[in-house]
Amino acid sequence: MAQVEATTERIIAAGPEDVFDALAD
Questions:
Q1: What percent of the chain has pLDDT over 90?
Q2: Model confidence, pTM
Q3: d(CA 13, CA 9)
Q4: Are 11 and 19 in contact (CB under 8 A)?
Q5: What average pLDDT does this structure show over 8-13?
Q6: What is the 3-state secondary structure (H, E, C) of 1-25?
């Protein structure tokens, strides 16, 4: 689950707009 935590941190650091872009893919 470490990879999930790292990805979550990256998403949070990226900001909301990038999160929505990632979810849209």
A1: 0
A2: 0.37
A3: 6
A4: yes
A5: 82
A6: CHHHHHHHHHHHHHCHHHHHHHHHC
